[in-house]
Design brief:
Length: about 290
């Protein structure tokens, strides 16, 4: 799908608005398409979900080019912008440069890199999250911004100071440094069940640049609270993956137990949906136009 406005510009615009944007997780082209179909204006390509869908851990076990392949399929099947989870950038500043160039070339609107160490660990695992050195991470941000070919690509810097139990002051110091280094937006992450610490961050940070939240753990917080706090975007980070796990488990177990499709047929998406989601109508039209059957 093409449009006059680039996907990077579309994401940039979403983050710049005063309204809060909501991004839905996807981990492959199918789930990205479904998120777009539901109405989401942008997609979060979750590292956790892409890893889990590939059957590996969220510890950089999938190589960056393996993730890139998944992202390319996702971008090809959607017209909304995709914000890719770039973990720690897969190495040092130089790896970030190449990552940014390749993502941009493959139609990804932006990347989020987090201030931890490679190989990263999921924020909700363990209590010993090592943070990147601030100056070193700023070099990655600068290198990433300097290497993008166009003006539109969005580089988001994710702050893990609260996840690492380093407190609000450390989080704010990092925010100031990453913003000064050229980050277009910030993610402030938290593993608390209440939003207090991220809302305190938002209040202190103000509108210096867009702030994005990932309320996986503080999921009870009503959206109105994020909106009142002036949050630019909220990421529903892993819920297509988790929905798929539940649905696939129920279906597999029932078919196994009953040796029959009768019980599940009415509950699973019809084949027509599968053809529609993969764009078969377009191929049929193209065949009418181009295919000569001798
Ligand atoms: C992801 O979705 O991969 C994220 C969010 O980075 S979290 O799992 O909370 O770290
Ligand atoms: Mg991640």
């Amino acid at each position: 799908t093409s449009s006059n406005i680039s996907k990077g510009a579309a994401l940039r615009h979403l983050l710049a608005r005063t309204e809060t944007a909501y991004l839905m997780e996807a981990h492959n082209a199918l789930s990205a398409r479904i998120a777009e179909e539901a109405g989401f204006p942008a997609v979060w390509a979750s590292g956790l979900s892409i890893s889990a869908a590939l059957g590996v851990r969220d510890s950089n076990e999938a190589s960056w080019t393996q993730v890139l392949e998944v992202l390319e399929f996702m971008a090809d099947r959607t017209s909304v912008p995709i914000l890719a989870d770039g973990d720690t950038g897969y190495g040092n500043f130089n790896n970030v440069r190449r990552l940014v160039r390749k993502l941009e070339q493959r139609g990804i609107a932006g990347v989020c890199i987090e201030d931890k160490l490679f190989p990263k660990t999921n924020s909700f695992l363990g209590d010993d999250q090592d943070l990147a050195d601030i100056a070193e991470f700023c070099g990655k941000i600068k290198a990433g911004k300097d290497s993008q070919a166009g003006a539109d690509f969005v580089l988001v810097a994710r702050i893990e100071a609260l996840v690492a139990n380093r407190g609000l002051d450390e989080a704010l110091a990092r925010a100031h440094a990453f913003h000064a280094a050229g980050a277009d937006a910030l993610v402030i992450h938290s593993k608390k069940a209440e939003p207090d610490e991220v809302l305190a961050f938002c209040a202190a940070w103000g509108d210096r640049c867009p702030v994005i939240l990932i309320p996986t753990k503080y999921f009870r917080t009503p959206a109105e609270m994020f909106e009142a706090a002036g949050v630019s975007a909220v990421v529903w980070a892993n819920h297509n993956l988790r929905a798929a796990i539940t649905a696939m488990r129920e279906t597999s177990r029932e078919i196994f137990a009953t040796r029959s499709l009768v019980g599940v047929e009415a509950r699973v998406a019809p084949l027509a949906d599968v053809f529609e989601l993969s764009g078969n109508a377009e191929l049929e039209a193209a065949e009418r136009r181009y295919l000569v059957r001798p």
